[in-house]
Each structure stands twice: as C-alpha cells, then as structure tokens.
Amino acid sequence: MVVIKRMAECNYCDEVFCVASKQGTTRLWNHYHAFHDENEGKPNITKLKGADWKYDEETSIRKYYLAIIMHEYPFSFSKHEYTNDFIRSLCPIFY
Length: 95
Known about the structure:
Layout: E1 7-9, E2 16-18, H1 26-35, H2 57-70, H3 81-90
Antiparallel strand pairs: 1-2
C-alpha cells in the first residue's frame, strides 16, 4: 500500500506544506498573508508634515466641549484635575 501526501511549496520562501484535499489553497494563502504580504496588518496612516498642522486653541476647546456634551458627561468633567492635566500634556498653553 502506497500513501501519497499532497504537498505544496511557497513560491516566496520555498517552505513546503502538507495539504489536505479539503483545504485547497487556503493554507498557502494564510501563509502568504502572515509572512509575505507587506500591506497586511499595517495601518493606513497619512503622515502630515509639521508645517501642514497648526494648533488653533479656539477650535480645540470647541471640540473638547463638544466631546463632553455628545458623551453626556457632566460639565464638571471639564474642571477635573486629571482631565485638564491630560489636555495640558497635549498642549501646554491650555488653561
């Protein structure tokens, strides 16, 4: 009796896999996405140059208050020591 194992080889790193007939190419695709796909798992981030961004205190405060209102936090949240400490860590001139 002869046992035949189905094998598949990665075209990128020459790793060899045993594959069941039910898997088809799934195992190879999973290997490719895990080890060879450069775009997989990387966030799509657009980088801004320092000159493209300008701090606008009025806009920042307006967005800060809008976040408090939309999340229905009590207005005292804006006077909380740790909240303002966090905001000052982002922008030292925040009052």
